[in-house]
């Protein structure tokens, strides 16, 4: 049942990913505010020393319109970015954009993954971030290959440097 699946998902978060039971109440709020998504994206880029052109996991930052499509940022908002944003998206009109979304680059919460063709919050991109963080494919557990393996190693080395 749906309730059984939800209970099992919560168990996995608590037991396998170390989320404390006291955090469970705030988890939906944090997801809705894109806390984990934003930190995962920005940290992967920083620790892996990726440039903006690298678009790690097909993610980038941009202003979007009401439908989630990339749009120009209003000049007044752009001028005030430094004073009204903490630099972690989404804030001050800058959002996480899934460039690999089905159809066109789209605001992450409104995006559909190519693997599912469903509005799934860019699941493919989020699984990619998880894979890079753990150094293996988040779905199959297989070792990462090629540029993904290199980036996962760079991220791990970047983390080790600041410990």
UniProtKB/TrEMBL annotation:
One of its GO terms (biological process) is butyrate metabolic process. GO terms for cellular component: extracellular space. It comes from the Bacteria. InterPro entries: OHBut_olig_hydro_put. One of its GO terms (molecular function) is hydroxybutyrate-dimer hydrolase activity. Keywords: Hydrolase. This is D-(-)-3-hydroxybutyrate oligomer hydrolase. It comes from Marinobacter adhaerens. The lineage of its organism: Bacteria, Pseudomonadati, Pseudomonadota, Gammaproteobacteria, Pseudomonadales.
């Amino acid at each position: 049942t749906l309730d059984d699946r939800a209970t099992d998902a919560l168990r996995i978060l608590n037991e396998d990913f170390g989320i404390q039971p006291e955090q469970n109440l705030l988890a939906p709020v944090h997801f809705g505010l894109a806390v984990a998504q934003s930190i995962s994206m920005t940290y992967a880029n920083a620790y892996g020393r990726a440039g903006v052109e690298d678009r790690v996991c097909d993610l980038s930052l941009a202003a979007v319109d009401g439908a989630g499509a990339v749009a120009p940022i209003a000049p007044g908002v752009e001028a005030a970015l430094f004073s009204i944003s903490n630099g972690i998206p989404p804030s001050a009109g800058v959002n996480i954009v899934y460039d690999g979304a089905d159809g066109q680059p789209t605001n992450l919460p409104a995006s559909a993954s190519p693997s599912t063709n469903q509005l799934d919050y860019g699941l493919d991109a989020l699984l990619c971030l998880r894979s890079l963080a753990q150094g293996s494919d988040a779905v199959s557990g297989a070792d990462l290959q090629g540029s993904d393996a290199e980036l996962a190693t760079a991220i791990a080395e970047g983390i080790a440097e600041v410990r």
